[in-house]
Design brief:
Elements lengths: L2 H15 L8 H10 L2 H22 L1 H14 L3 H4 L19 H20 L1 H29 L11 E9 L3 E4 L4 H10 L3 E18 L2 E10 L3 H4 L4 E3 L11 E5 H8 L8 E4 L3 E9 L12 E4 L3 H4 L16 E7 L5 H16 L2 H6 E7 H4 L11 H30 L3 H9 L4 H38 L11 H27 L3 H6 L10 H34 L9 E5 L5 H12 L4 E7 L9 E3 L1 E3 L10 E5 L4 H5 L3 E4 L10 E5 H7 L11 E4 L2 E9 L14 E4 L7 E6 L4 H15 L8 E2 H6 L3 H35 L1 H9 L4 H35 L10 H27 L3 H5 L3
């Protein structure tokens, strides 16, 4: 049996024995079957198949398919394409001699000529390499950013069966919360067999961890069930996986935090204090968390200790308390359906533990782990549509880059017409000329890829700082990047070089030697006009997008929020006992520069405020809308400048006695006026009180959301923050005085402060990131477009050399010559604007739909966009046109 037959038999045998065995990507096999020489085909397919199966066992089927595709691309070498034509139909094909130097000599010759041409036309080569490098660098960064976000929490074993249980509140609209009532986790684990593991975890931010009196740190900590480490793949470096998180008063640290706390000492057995309420012993060390996970806590304490630290979060039978930090994860058994569990198991829990009305209000659902990073309703980092938008921008940049290359190459083609004529007279064929130009394109694209990677590597730290992430451009650790770079290179070579190569190869030798190549033979000026219109349209689309986002964010910063946000210092209150609060208020008021002091749970604008139900006056049923509730003292309204439209402010109290409501609450109650609600009783969150005043509406969240019905009441046990209105004239000493008094009151805590306007700016953090990126990409697209414009003007100047000479001899002015060029581009600019403006309006209208309070798209956006593009075009075209207009007409007409 021959070697080919053995390969065929071996592959067919393996496939027949294991019909469910993962298979290589069919497109790659088909590509090999169509290209590889017949006498090599079976051997290569057999070897690749065996290698694929080994990788499946070692890496898994997904990565094995990626590597298989990469192997196939690396095998696309001309030496494997050759067929022994003499023996192609023979029963016993002979071995072909691939050591024939003719092919290698031809490739070497193409390469040498390409280098000589690039050296001779350095400016042309530099412009092309620069434009390709800029575009490809952006695409590399965009690809890395997209794959980074798509990789979040995909490293966990059985990640497709891991879900987070979340809460939906059904009233007049559906609201979402990442948390669940504390009893749900135990109930779901004990009563329903469809799950393998259930783990509760409570995330608490910025807790004080004391290693020694001189070493205190703020850490994000988590209280987790032991099953948490069974569900997720966070491996231990030290410690017993069977006992960690089982024993109370113990803790796990990551390697990074352990080094920060103890240096090179062995951390096992060490004691640390957490918020003065817990003393825990280190019993295990976890590997450092990878950057692509949404779990950022690096200290884990057994869930049973949560009742010692934060008892209100774990009231055993309290099903009405839903906190976003109290989360529950589960891993389903193989074959279990999440949709079925939503409709049956979780629905049954609501029906069992709530009355009929509340069962309709509280609903629980499963959220796939893959959706956690991308769901904005459940505090996801970003939406997938943002990633696809970046991908589309990358596509536009590659199109702009390739269009620019084509324009420059065809503009230079006229200067090579005589060279092409001589080559054809000496016997060169179209194919050889085409591949010669493709070799030149490949050399420039190869150099551009190297420079693009270096540019992307240099820009990476800035991108990481902007997004506060940890992107890496290490090809040795990123199989996707290794695959993407050669694919990107091939795409750029093909789309940039094919059209100019075909144009050059089809020149007629006689006309080429006479220098009488017509614009039609150069591919037609209309095509290059279309390409420039494309560049203009892409640039204007990005410019309009930049202007819309910048104006919306400026509006968000400058609009009246309904309260004072400037010069407001926010301090934490670790212990809110009445005596501590009164002492701090007195001490802070004596600090020079302090104008007012208030204590509260959340600031006027905050995403952390909770909402609850309301029953108004003598109505027998609760209202169908939720009301946002804030706990604050009587100084809250005057300190933040809240306006009282009807009634009065709250009286000083430590308990709930009175309520302030806003205008939106009055409207939601269906009352005819603000005064109609004053003096009426209301039961909010089960606590009865009298509504004593109505506040003017203020923005309690970002402009993405509408103003909620809202109430404020006194309840000192909930005061977790202190707001201090200060004078900015002497801010340094004022902050020093606040720190001195605060540290004296809370010596075991770490003094921190922030400004309210900075907190509000964080509402638009992602929007600002998007703005920064689009600004950068717009600038790069404009630079690349300018290079393309320069190429087209150069082509026009070369075509109109004699026309310009004749016009100047006949008395044409410099301005007239400039207008000869300018009118062409003004028309192209208007056409591009006509294409870009409707598309930009549609895209940005959809983006603005995410804002309840937003700007209007009008002439103030589109007129500056076309003005910016026009100025850039005038500067670019004007420089080259002026050179042509000032040229000596005698030289241009001498050949006639």
């Amino acid at each position: 049996m021959g070697w080919d037959s053995k390969n065929r038999f071996r592959r067919q045998y393996v496939m027949s024995q294991k019909p469910n065995t993962p298979q290589p990507p069919r497109w790659a096999e088909r590509l090999l079957e169509r290209i590889i020489a017949p006498h090599l085909r079976e051997e290569l397919l057999g070897d690749l198949y065996e290698l694929f199966q080994k990788r499946v066992r070692r890496f898994g089927s997904s990565q094995a398919r990626w590597l298989y595709g990469l192997d196939v691309l690396l095998l696309l070498h001309p030496r494997l394409w050759r067929r022994n034509s003499a023996n192609q139909h023979s029963r016993h094909p002979q071995t072909t001699d691939y050591s024939n130097p003719a092919l290698m000599n031809m490739l070497s010759n193409h390469f040498k000529i390409a280098l000589r041409k690039l050296n001779r036309n350095r400016s042309h080569a530099l412009i092309n390499v620069l434009s390709l490098s800029l575009g490809m660098a952006c695409v590399i960064l965009i690809f890395t950013l997209i794959t980074y976000h798509l990789s979040f929490d995909t490293f966990h074993a059985h990640q497709d069966r891991i879900y987070r249980i979340y809460t939906e509140f059904h009233d007049d609209k559906i609201r979402y919360n990442t948390g669940v009532p504390n009893p749900l986790g135990t109930t779901f684990r004990n009563e329903h067999p469809a799950v393998e593991h259930v783990g509760r975890i409570a995330f608490l931010k910025k807790r004080v961890v004391e290693v020694s009196p001189a070493k205190k740190f703020e850490e994000d900590i988590a209280f987790a069930d032991p099953e948490f480490l069974d569900i997720f793949n966070f491996p231990l470096v030290q410690g017993n996986p069977k006992t960690v998180l089982h024993e109370r008063n113990t803790a796990l640290l990551t390697e990074r935090v352990a080094r920060k706390y103890f240096g090179d000492e062995d951390p096992i057995g060490k004691l640390v204090h957490v918020d003065d309420s817990l003393v825990v012993r280190i019993t295990g060390i976890l590997h450092d968390l990878p950057p692509n996970t949404d779990f950022r806590s690096e200290m884990f304490i057994p869930f049973d200790n949560l009742k010692d630290h934060t008892p209100w979060m774990v009231e055993k039978d309290w099903w009405f308390s839903v906190n976003s930090e109290m989360q529950c994860f589960t891993r389903l058994k193989p074959g279990a359906s999440a949709a079925t569990i939503d409709a049956t198991v979780l629905s049954a829990i609501s029906d069992k533990y709530y009355n009929q009305d509340m069962a309709k209000y509280f609903r629980f659902k499963l959220q796939p782990l893959a959706d956690v990073h991308f769901n904005p309703n459940l505090k996801g980092y970003t939406e997938k549509k943002n990633l696809w938008a970046f991908g589309l921008i990358g596509f536009f940049l590659i199109v702009t880059t390739c269009v620019n290359f084509i324009n420059l190459s065809t503009a230079q083609a006229l200067g090579r017409s005589k060279e092409i004529g001589v080559r054809k007279v000496l016997g060169s064929r179209r194919g050889a000329l085409f591949w010669q130009f493709m070799t030149e394109t490949a050399v420039m694209a190869g150099l551009a890829t190297v420079f693009a990677f270096l540019l992307a590597y240099l820009a990476l730290p800035a991108v990481n700082r902007l997004f506060e992430i940890e992107l890496s451009l290490n090809p040795l650790k990123n199989v996707y990047l290794v695959t993407f770079l050669p694919i990107l290179l091939l795409i750029v070579i093909f789309f940039s070089g094919t059209y100019p190569g075909l144009i050059l190869a089809r020149f007629q030798p006689l006309l080429a030697l006479k220098g009488k190549i017509s614009p039609r033979q150069m591919g037609g000026f209309s095509l290059r006009k279309s390409l420039v219109v494309t560049q203009f349209a892409i640039s204007q689309l990005l410019i309009i997008g930049t202007l819309v986002i910048a104006n919306q964010l400026r509006y968000s910063r400058q609009a009246d929020l309904g309260f004072q946000k400037d010069a407001m210092v926010i301090l934490p209150v670790p212990n809110n006992q009445k005596s501590n609060i009164n002492t701090l208020r007195s001490q802070f008021s004596e600090v020079a520069g302090v104008e007012n002091v208030t204590f509260f749970d959340t600031a006027p604008a905050s995403e952390d405020a909770g909402s609850t139900g309301i029953r108004f006056d003598t109505r027998t049923e609760s209202e169908t809308f939720p009301i946002t509730i804030k706990a604050a003292d009587d100084q809250y309204a005057p300190t933040f400048g809240l306006q009282i439209l009807a009634g009065r402010n709250l009286h000083p109290s430590d308990t709930i006695r009175e309520y302030l409501v806003n205008e939106s609450a009055v409207k939601a109650l269906g009352l005819p006026s603000n005064q109609a609600v004053v003096g009426k009783d209301a039961s909010i969150n089960g606590r009865k009180g009298t509504i004593v005043g109505v506040m003017k509406d203020f923005h309690n969240r970002s402009f993405h959301a509408a103003i909620d019905p809202l109430c404020i009441t006194t309840r000192s046990e909930n005061y977790s923050h202190c707001g201090v209105k200060v004078s900015l004239a002497n801010l340094g000493p004022t902050l020093a005085g606040l720190e001195k008094n605060w540290s004296a009151m809370y010596p075991s805590s770490i003094f921190t402060y922030r400004f309210l306007d900075e907190d509000i700016a964080r509402f638009y953090k992602l929007d600002n990131m998007i703005l920064w990126l689009i600004q950068a990409f717009s600038l790069i697209a404009i630079v690349i477009g300018c290079l393309g414009l320069y190429g087209l003007v150069s082509y026009m100047a070369a075509q109109k050399t004699k026309e310009i000479g004749v016009r100047k001899v006949l008395g044409a002015s410099v301005f007239g010559i400039l207008w000869l060029f300018g009118k062409e581009f003004f028309q192209l600019l208007l056409i591009a604007f006509g294409l870009a403006a409707p598309l930009a309006w549609w895209v940005m209208s959809r983006w603005l739909n995410d804002f309840v309070y937003r700007i209007e798209l009008g002439a103030g956006i589109f007129v500056p966009a076309i003005a910016i593009t026009s100025i850039i075009a005038v500067l670019t075209v004007g420089y080259r046109s002026l050179r042509a207009a000032l040229a000596n007409p005698v030289k241009s007409l001498r050949s006639e």
